[in-house]
Design goal:
By secondary structure, the protein is of the alpha/beta class. It has 3 domains: 2-261, Tandem AAA-ATPase domain (Rossmann fold); 266-278 and 336-493, Rossmann fold; 280-333, no CATH class. Helices cover 44% and strands 20% of the residues. It is built from 19 helices and 17 strands. It has a 7-stranded parallel sheet with strand order 3-4-2-5-6-1-9, sandwiched between helices. Strands 10-17-16-13-15-14 form a 6-stranded parallel sheet, with helices on both faces. A hairpin with a 5-residue loop joins strand 11 (322-324) and strand 12 (330-332).
């Protein structure tokens, strides 16, 4: 009993003696107390609960106590610059003298000189921020390894579901690099986006034995129910369910801290609304033809999954009013989605985020809003938006006195790392099958700093893949809830 109390006091003292730049919330302090001196740990903290601050404080505590000299932070391409310009300057205390270097594959004289700061023989905390895509390249992997070998380092993977694919080159590289790090951390609000199998590679980076299995197949055998299925001339293993999830949850609890926004933040409610439209006769004809073709491919059983997914993607495009043919020609249709969107905007007060999967839709929405409300009222945030413009767009949108009212973005580009709490309405012009993308994009507005309820509106074409996508997303979140020992959530009405 006495030793247990002494151990707890030692843990807490490492945190309590640290001079925070900003005092943490109770849940952030709890996360730090549980994790700060552990070799490996997972912050499974909902978006908007401040997991970036927790990691930064953990990093600085370890530096203060002489445990590390460097930190390597890996983040998605759309987020990693925000670590350099936003998160790190905001939360690192003044007494922690540090150098921050952002990965740049360019080997100009200037860039080489900047990178040299990572290896200067001084007492500064060296912080190297890389985008996860860079670890798919030899240049990026070599630089990361050189940094880790040179320092007693903490290595962290932000939005760690980017390494859930065990077969991806970057996953294998990051897992291997982690062996050089003294401390390892993963951060995500939704570690399970498709199935419990998502957890294996994330936890393998921390330590292969944390889940009690040295191989993915052993892990899969324990937690997945597999049936052999035949389609055409092909047979394959198919996961039909999951088992032993209570055991899995118990293992996760030993090296992770889980918190949901509703448990720790007094945030206003989320409200979900569905607005339905019908396909035009032309849309329905093209849609049904694509559907028939996709079914024929499935029955044939001789095509790749990518081919089937391409057909599904085209079916989604048709629902939004366009489709790209095999020869790259863009065919457009009259569609009820855009008029429905403009009708919603007429009913809506305040600033609005509009998420659309396809670039064509983004540009068409921008054109329609510009014609009705003026050029200054709208901005686009997608793959082709210049990096220098992105932060300016966010700043304008977050300024309540600025005339930028409508933020149109691709969830995969703008759905990560941004704070857009001036929005009270988020409209989904289209969705995709990736649960994490959906959750991330939802929480750009529903996070610390939001004082009003947020309304989420899905524009759905009836009797189409739009409905199937929403159903698939619902199923995935239920799986995630089981693994993380959470209650099932009513998500999309």
């Amino acid at each position: 009993m006495y030793l247990g109390l002494l151990y707890k006091a030692t843990l807490e003292s490492g945190v309590m003696r640290y001079k925070f730049k900003y005092q943490p919330y109770e849940h952030q302090l709890n996360a730090l107390t549980k994790s700060w001196n552990k070799s490996e740990f997972a912050y499974f903290m909902d978006m908007g609960t401040g997991k970036s601050k927790v990691l930064i404080d953990n990093m600085c505590i370890l530096y203060d106590r002489g445990e590390i000299t460097g930190a390597l932070i890996i983040a998605p391409k759309g987020v990693y610059r925000n670590w350099e310009k936003g998160e790190l300057p905001t939360h690192i205390p003044d007494h922690v003298i540090h150098d921050i270097v952002l990965w740049n594959p360019s080997q100009t004289k200037k860039q080489i000189e900047i990178q040299r700061k990572l290896f200067f023989p001084d007492d500064n905390l060296k912080i190297f921020v890389m985008n996860v895509e860079a670890l798919s390249t030899k240049k990026g992997a070599d630089m990361a390894e050189r940094f880790l070998v040179a320092h007693d380092a903490l290595m962290a993977v932000d939005e760690s579901t980017t390494i859930k694919n065990k077969d991806a080159k970057r996953t294998k590289t990051i897992v291997s690099l982690g062996k050089h790090a003294k401390f390892r951390r993963i951060l995500t609000g939704s570690p399970v986006t498709k199935s419990p199998m998502d957890l294996y590679s994330q936890c393998e980076f921390l330590d292969p034995w944390l889940l009690g299995h040295s191989s993915f197949f052993s892990f899969q055998h324990e937690y997945a129910v597999i049936q052999r299925r035949t389609m055409g001339a092909h047979s394959f293993n198919h996961i039909v369910g999951y088992r032993n999830l209570e055991k899995l949850t118990s293992l996760l609890n030993k090296f992770s801290y889980r918190v949901k926004k509703e448990d720790c933040l007094d945030l206003p409610d989320k409200v979900y609304v569905k607005r339905t439209v019908e396909l035009t006769k032309e849309q329905r004809s093209v849609y049904d033809s694509l559907k028939t073709f996709a079914m024929a491919l499935l029955e044939e059983g001789s095509v790749s999954t990518d081919t089937i997914l391409t057909q599904l993607l085209r079916m989604q495009q048709v629902c939004s009013g366009h489709v790209k043919t095999d020869d790259g020609v863009l065919k457009t249709f009259d569609s009820a989605k855009l008029p429905e969107l403009m009708s919603i905007l007429e009913e809506t007060d305040g600033k609005v985020i509009i998420w659309a999967t396809f670039t064509h839709d983004i540009l068409e929405i921008q054109k329609a809003i510009t014609e009705k409300y003026g050029e200054q009222s709208v901005a686009t945030y997608y793959g082709e938006t210049e990096c220098d413009e992105r932060q300016e767009i966010v700043n304008r949108f977050q300024d309540p006195n600025n005339g930028l009212v409508y933020f149109i973005g691709q969830p995969r580009t703008g759905g990560y790392g941004l704070t857009l709490t001036e929005a009270k309405t988020i409209i989904y012009y289209s969705n995709n099958f990736d649960l994490e993308v959906r959750l991330q994009s939802e929480d750009r507005a529903h996070r610390i700093g939001q004082n009003s309820k947020v309304t989420y509106i899905d524009i759905i074409a009836e009797n189409t893949t739009d409905e199937r996508v929403l159903k698939a997303l619902r199923n995935k979140i239920n799986i995630a809830s089981q693994v993380l020992a959470e209650d099932f959530r009513d998500w999309i009405v």
